[in-house]
Amino acid sequence: MNSKQLVLDAISGKKTERTPWVPFCGVHAASLLGVSAEEYLKSADLMIAGLNKAIALYKPDGIPVIFDLQLEAEAFGCGLHWNMDNPPSVVSHPLAGEKTRIDDLTRLSETAGRIPQVIKVIQTLRKQHPDIALYGLITGPFTLALHLLGTDIFMQMFDDTDAVHRLLDFCAETGKVMSRIMLENGCDVVAVVDPMTSQIGPDQFEEFCTDPMRKLFDYICEKGGKSSLFVCGHAQKNIEVMCDVHCDNISIDENIPLDYVRDICREKGVSFGGNMQLTVVMLLGDEATNKINALECLDIGGDTGFILSPGCDIPFAVPPENIIAAGAVAQSRDEQEIARQLASAARGPEVEKFDLVDYVEADKLKIDVITLDSLGCAPCQYMVAAAEQVAREFGPKVVVREHKVKTAEGIRMMVSLGVSNVPTLCMDKEIVFVSSIPGNKALADAMRERLRQKLKK
Hints:
This protein is 48% helix and 13% strand. By secondary structure, it is an alpha/beta fold. It folds into 2 domains: 3-345, Alpha-Beta Barrel (TIM Barrel); 365-456, Glutaredoxin (3-Layer(aba) Sandwich). A 7-stranded parallel β-sheet has the order 1-4-5-6-7-8-9. Helix 15 (320-331) crosses helix 16 (333-345). The mean pLDDT is 94.
């Protein structure tokens, strides 16, 4: 059985001779060429070269052709900030402030923005690697809606539900266009990547997301493709309702226990994938820790309807030998035995905590936002942006710091504050908002109340 069929069988929920391995190589492939993320994502030739290098090194059964959740947003006129080692981030929203209406937006087509170069990448890779499953990643309806409207969407979900429904229907129709482009040019799987759904609960998900997602996933099925819903962040609360959107597969990150997802997905007849740890293992670990983590996922996922993959887009600077080690465990029983021996012989040292005894200051409110990386993680970006925007109202009395768990310092701060999920916002060491972007008023009220309490002391 070739690699592509292995992936397609697993996504269909079938038992496979071994668990397929799909490393999510986005801008990490740029690092293999020694170029920046911006250079890479703006050049079809560089993407083809980077993906070919990743395929040669990591021997994947499937691979994404691009991992950039700003592709559609850019084509609709969202301003982007380009980064050296992350995909771009959205910095302006055409529908914010009612300056532009949905009807004013030009519908997406094959010629919009950077889509023509993505088509070239798909067509080239399809010819070069007929036996590998190609994933076409598109931006999910809720995340695209937030890119277009900004964080005002959370207020409108209460004040103008009809407008939010119209916007999500528009984004689902955009998803259909992108799915058709991906499938007609050679992709086997369409992955709808919607990380911002981690910011809403199951009731809101059902009210706003279920119907547009069903229409999108039904369309992918009608076009003959397989589908996956990629989620990240603290989305455990939504897994059951996500299983009802007619997707073939759900792929999760390390914020959600893999066994929890396995049990729900199997009950619902949905396959699942994930969820190797991106930072403490893939980025900051060594070959042994990657082998052990891969084995842990394989033991939980099994060989029926499971795909081994990282929790999300592989960070730019992950050492290639770590990815090679993880893939080898997926594809070799001998490597699995080695991983078992490593796991029984080694226990990692505990992370040393910061001394935060005197951390709180009498005349200053400290805001710590624990993120994966606000430059590459949409929920992290919007939480940091909200904190910085509201903090400006209070001047030097409020200090905002981001701690990226892609760094050793970020992991130490996460452990020191007792944070378990990203993004999380803390005020003077107290966890206040967990994987839920607060509205500006709620955030300002929380800051104001804590400053008031300081003055009383």
